[in-house]
Batch of 2 targets.
Target 1
Amino acid sequence: MLVVWLMVVALAGSLVTLVVPRQSAKTVAAILGGIVVALYIGLLVHPGQGVNVAWIPAWGIRFHLGSDGLSLFLIGLTVVLTEVAILASKPEWGRVYFFWILFLEFGSLGLFSALDLFLFYIFWEVVLIPIFFLLTSWSGPKGRQAAMKWLIMNLFGSLFMLIGIVAVAVIHTQPFGPLTFEISQLVHLHMDARVTPWVFAAFFLAFAIKAPLWPFHGWMPDAYREAPAPVTALLSGVMSKAGVYGFLRIMLPLFFPEFVRYETGLLIFAVIGLVYGAFMALRQTDMKMVTAYASLSHIGMIALGIFTLTRVGILGATFQMVAHGLMVGGLFIILGFLEQRTGTRDISAMRGLNASAPRLAAYFLFFALATLGLPGLPGFVGEYLIIQGLVVHHVVFAVIAIIVLVMAAWYMLRVFQGVMQGPEGTKQIADLKAGQIWWIVPLAGLVLLLGVWPNGLTSHAVPSLYHAVHLLAGKGGSV
Amino acid sequence: MQLLSEILLLPLIGAVSITVFKGLMPKKLPGIWASALVGISFLLSIAADVHLAHLGVHHRVVTGNLWTWISGFGPAIGARLYLDPLAGVWLLVITGVGMLIHIYSIGYMHDDPGKARYFSYLNFFIFSMLLLVLAGNLIVLLIGWALVGLASYFLIGFWYHRPSAVRAAKKAFVMNTVGDVGILLGLALLYLHYHTVGYPHLFRILSAAHPGSAFFEWTAFLLYVGAMAKSAQFPLHMWLADAMEGPTPVSALIHAATMVTAGVYLMARLYPLLRLAPNVHYLIGAIGAFTAIFAASIAIFQRDIKKVLAYSTLSQLGYMFLAIGVGGYVAGVFHFMMHAFFKALLFLAAGSVIHALSGEQDINKMGGLFKKMPWTMAAFLAGTLAISGIPPFSGYFSKEAILGQAFNSGHTLLWGVGVLTAGMTAFYMFRLFFITFFGAPRDQTLYDHAHEAPLVMTVPVMILGVLAVVGGFFGGWLNRWLAPTFARYPGASHAGLESGPVFGTILTVGLAVIAILLAYWMYVKKRVAPNAGAATGLGRQAYEAWNMDTVWAWLAVIPFKTIGNWLKPVENGILEFVNGVASVVWLWAADLRPLQTGYVRRYALSIMVGLGALLAFYLIRA
């Protein structure tokens, strides 16, 4: 039940922020977000059963929410990053802004805990809305354009997913009787070999656009660039995981034989994104864009882990989703602080800022090192597990992946050093304020904890993770 | 086991406490606090080694799990620590030499505004290096491995307002990342096949295997790439010369005595794997010998005091890898230990010189300093004699052990390269010594202001000086200490110290003496200008380090940037496509334009209405 309470508080909280005085909206939102975080700690201690009631009985749609090894830590990522985003936002952005942020939290929580395919689809669409409005109204000059791209591409994808969902449910009725959207039931499906590739593609397209995976990332550069830093953090930290989560929650259980059949193709597809993102990151001059393309590269890495179809690769992908969300979320927020202070995102327009803002530089470096996969921090853990999965059958891809890790060190340090080091420029900026440090420290602490003690996550996620992705025996049964 | 965590934790506590409280600390405290913690760590390390010595000869291992690092896909990997005699040697050198350099730094960094930051980095380095050495499996080793790289990055770029320091730091980090990912892939392969990366367990399994399969060659090669990057073996050596941008005590501690020898440690640690990969094992020795002579050829033409020492470090690391490659593991460790003494000594003495000349590093501006700095000169001379392999100084014993082993094992070519390099070493080191301390001052103003370093700096230098002189007599003790460790698993039958043929010793020492006389004749008698010969021809190429930077730029940097540029049009195409689709939709939606009022309130209202409708639907159905 607790997982429902999280959502109720987020939804009710979003409405509450609409009616409080304008100047206290941020404080109220932060308190409500804090309550959700506190409830989440309760959920960690008592994972519980979730809720499963009939919703639209005529179509066999059920209101089925729950958390397991796959979703539990993504829910945690959502609540933590939402709270961080609220705290990093400016109070003058107003009530409606905070309403949308909490509403987005509600939608994301629903997305990650839905166990009914139709319910999943509802939340899949629900999260489009807050992002769309956050992009149109609180963004840079091209915000509206970015919002349009976001909406059109994602609606395009989800349209196909809807067709896929209906197809799956209808085909399922033929041997098994009444209509159902319950994922755990649909896995028994046996589809006609002529239909399957199309249904597979329909789902795949939707998830690949949302993640985004190369070459479906057309909406990404504009949206990441134009959105205010906290929203970019949520986009890359939480929303990108929704797409990857779809692969794990829905596609792996439903289409495992197809994954096996297309394995090499899928790996090539993911590895192109991995390499492509790294090369683009290397050539960007806008510091936010470097991180955006780095994120594209990392999502490719996560997909690579999934497509190995090994336990360890999937565990790595699951770990990396959470780790990447926290790291890149922190990084985008730090970049946002920098942009606020300097008024630019151009790397060449900044230098030597470390002298006037040593603390900002230190946290910048911390999140940059985490993102580039420094051993001892969580990025390394995820990358290790994914590479451990790749070496089982695909050493060549493992070699490409490690080359990209070297590139990551190169492009991240290029940004950090370009901005923070070198001779001091004419510009002096303010360092982090105490009001910012008190919540950045716990975020950094969480990242550090995940890196030093990854077992805290992995031991909780396994074995319900393998159960959730239906990878208990067979090919993935080994490592 | 408790002792191990404390040895590790003390420097970490120092690093964290200085970082957090540096604003509150009195100016002198960070240096004293950091040195004291490393000092206690040193005493505990002695205690740990004494404890080890009390165990039976074949049971000298202390190990334990701190916590489970990861689990869920195979046998769990623990945060495991492991101390055996091999780690014990490194432990003493890291904390012992580390402590001396901390103390020296109190004087050297006295006037630097960032000295609190400096000492927190230095303590962090000690922690990371100890973690690397005390690791009980390859994962923990890799974490320590990367963290020493990070500490090195911090300290090379310590003066971050200098563009050259920033560039050098980045280069060191990226080149070291090449090594890190090599180890990562290597350990992943080992885990895949053996379901463990823990030391005693992995070695037991490897001991039962038969050599010759490609798997072992590849795994060993990947791990060797890690060692190559960290220990600056050709062709991943360029970063070490640039690393001299850091403060001189850092060069002494990290880029000479300890961190750069991590590769030697790893290879010595993995000798059961090297047994199974004979080709890689030979390659290690061959690249080691090549690095030794290659770096020596560069050192002869350098005109920056620290650059000479940096290339000599490269060259000496080559000797250590040569020892590993010919199976003389104890000789390699012996040379590591002696090198830690005499090279730290040389760097610190050079640091005193640089300090005295207010930061000048160009030997063209030195000369005649023996009158001003007699103690430093004496210490530098001790170090120079040691590195040149003149008996009975420390370097003589360890270098003889390596060359003897190379000869005895039939690697005549590698032996020959080693002998020749010994002569070159004596020449470039005495060239440096004579130019710096003898002859007439080349820059009168600098000379007039030169002064002997304060006690806090000279005392550590003197202690290292004594060790550099008498260190060689530890050889027998070291041999007895390490022999059982290398006898535990097959693959190191000739690990112990051996003496080579007498003619070899005569040849090596003779060459060194001739080289010294030549240097004396050239730079004291004839007063040849320090940079003569570096202007044209091969000398110019050698001065420019055989242009390896350019080679790397053409092999790696430029291709990567070019590919990035090629991909830009692709990216633009993808983005334009989306733009096109978006504008089509935009036109198509023109009829619906009136709905797009842009008022967020209205949008919000519509959504609320929609949600309400859904809710109503639900209620009705229920």
Target 2
Amino acid sequence: MSGATTTAAGAGTAPAAPVPAAEPRVRSGRRRGLIPAAVVALYVLVALCAPLISPFDPDHADLVARLSGPFASAHGHFHLLGTDALGRDVLSRAFYGSRVSIAVAAATVVVSGAFGVFVGVLAGWYRGWVGVVVMRVADIALSVPFFLLAILVVAVLGPSLVNVVICLALVRWPRYTRIAYASVLETRERGFVRGAVAVGAPGRWIVTRHVLPEVLPLAVVVATLELGLMVVFEASLSFIGLGVQPPTASWGSMLSDGQSYVATAWWLVTFPGLALFGLVLAVNLLGDAVRDRLDPKRSVPKRPFRRRGPGRPGRAPGWLRPGASGTAPSPGGPPGPAAPTHPSQEA
Amino acid sequence: MTTSYTARDTTRGTAGATVLDVRDLRVTFGPGLDAVDGLTLSARRGETVAVVGESGCGKTLSALALAGLLPEGATVTGSAVLDGHQLVGRGERQWRALRGSKVGMIFQDAATALNPLMSVGAQIEEVMAIHGTYRRAARRARAVELLASVGVPDAETRARSHPHQLSGGMRQRVMIAMALAGSPDLVVADEPTTALDVTVQAQVLALLRESTRDAAVLFITHDMGVVAEIADRVVVMYAGSVVEAGPLDEVLERPHHPYTAALLASVPDPDAPRAGELPTIPGRVPPLGERGSGCPFRDRCPKARERCAERPPLSELTPGGSAAACWYPGHTGAPERAEAPGRATAPGTTGAGPGPDGDPATPTTPHEEGTS
């Protein structure tokens, strides 16, 4: 910004010359999301390739090698991140754990997002009793304590990955519903929706072709920000034993298994914890970057208006100074030859 | 209120059969809240009827009523027949079949009435897709054809442009193309040129006139200059009801209703020497709910007499089809002369009036100050 300021004020010859000032800002915004995106992509890649890159079977117990530290070799097997209390390879389990985290988080976001946006759009479009019912149910869903609901769901349906997704989706859909509802209420009053009504478009047509494109970017932003939270929630559920069941590896269950050995085997909680931390951080940073890219109010480069033309700092343009071009242009009178057509642009 | 009048042959000469026949149309928001209080007008194919009036006189609501786009809470009574279809009392689903294909709507602000996320070509195609009038491939070609016909240069490329890439005039042209895409019988244009600057306005008006030969146009405006340019016939509305109606020349040259005369007097004349402040109409439009039973204009009318406490009917005054709702009609203006007996029923045409500018019927005559 400072470099751009000096160019514009110092040279200030051609109006078109110092335009590139806005460019670096946009690029830096893009770059900001690049590293988190790469990190998330790496996690996804690891999750997809877990069977290929894991040095051991994650569930294979090698009791001889139990609780060996990082870089330990036990009867010819090298464990980069050590082994747990049953002698299972921590690195392999962490690799496999990423599958659970990412699958649950992605599935939850998709399910709760699709449902939340759907009912939110319905509520916003039909308003009336549909809107009241949907939004009050959303309020109720938001007020339900998450872990109590999780315990209830697991108690009724039994612990499983699918039930974790159901449980999380039950709690998180109102986030999308509220955003979608507000956005539809705003969009339905806009001119192009009235225009679509005026050409005879049926409601479903207007919603899918004109309203949804306004709602979806907002929902995508919420979804990326939710993704990180869902990773944490899945880990929390697995930690308290309501998520995936042993011996399936999940970061949450690894943390839970390792907590009794914190004093003696630090690697059991450190590495899954770091993996969790890294993914959540990357996803949240990515979410911020996505929000900034998609939010038109934030993406406008904050550049003050510059005087164009010959730089005469501190001097009002000619037409403003008394006596420079006769009287001030009056709406009724014939405009003088020097009277500018659009004074506001130059002021 | 149900007095009918017929238009003379219009200047365009293409006017055909009556397409739109509105009788005693009322838009009500509740007891005593008649926003439109008895609108009666008719329009022929190829004819442009301008509905004029100041803000709050019900002209926009009338337009919305004829397009079935009234806000919630408004009820319409009366009769409005468009090409054999009764427009009053239609349900939403029945309206949908008419909108776009029978009634085309042009909004004031094309910048907001177009979807910023869709190319303009796609939005024109959409109208045809909704009504299923063309196959997919034909829609594309027809959209480009429509854009070209409304004077968009390089229509092929422009069809792929998004609204923000077009100028205000171009966007309004796209709006017109959209309104015409369904080949409607009636085009309702609600102040379509208000957001445009004067040169573009003139182009768009000429284009609108050119491209609506096969439809009746209901043109809503408050701008007498625009009326003079586009209308074949004029309907002047005041406080929800028609106060004067007639062919363009008659209404502009020999206004019968004092409100019309006052409106015309407040139009600045660029050729006349500046005599002082522009004449204005004192007071304001009586708000909804405070309109009594008498002539709605009587509080602001320089000619108002006791009889005005009773509502004057819209009665035909000239063979040309002019009608006014006034007990003392007359275009010569002076209140004393308007008192002449018999004028209410058979006024006839009394000589050449002073024209739209400098009409003595102006309620205010301040000639003291120069420029403010």
